[in-house]
Amino acid sequence: IVTVNCARLLKADHHATNGVVHVIDKVIATTTNTIQQIIETEENLETLRAAVAASDLNSLLESEGQYTLLAPTDEAFDKIPRETLNRILGDPEALRDLLNHHILKSAMCAEAIIAGLTMETLEGTTLDVGCSGEELTLNGKPIIANKDILATNGVVHFVNELLIPDSAKTLFELAQESEVSKSTELFRQAGLSSHLT
């Protein structure tokens, strides 16, 4: 699937006497902002804006290159327990891992993303793309709220749920999501859960 500034290429290579015509499915707008400038100007990215500044990712997101930012909205951050969010925001390494897990190494417009694709993030982790009806899913969840916001150095998709990589979780959080949840409960009953957190 070929896209031109996130417009889908419908028909290619119509040869004319004075050139070539390619038919696309939308009007291409002028793009002037970097990904960083989009983060700074969008109202519902306040928490992301602070997180990017705290992790020194500003320079990457305003540099030349082609990236895809899966931008968690304020709503996405609000869904996380306050204690967990404060822990991640207060841990520079976990915060950087979290944000890098939301950045892809290439510009991927929604039209060009094929279900069944595995995409690699800057953190080196992967995200699985699928479908739920007409909606794209990430790791099985239809969480893309707004797509194809073009920047001079890539594209931004808003997501309404945070994608937390394992490297940004505590042992307790990882254990609760796995086959050892009963063991975790025994640690808690024994008063040892603080070691896992």
UniProtKB/TrEMBL annotation:
**SUPFAM superfamilies from the UniProt entry:** FAS1 domain
GO terms under biological process: cell adhesion; extracellular matrix organization
Superkingdom of origin organism: Eukaryota
- State the protein's name: BGH3 protein
**Could you state a single Gene Ontology molecular function term?**
cell adhesion molecule binding
Q: Name one GO cellular component term.
A: extracellular matrix
User: Which InterPro entries did the record assign?
Assistant: Adhesion/Biosynth-related, FAS1_dom_sf, FAS1_domain
Domain FAS1 residues, every copy: 1-28, 32-163
TM spans (from-to): none
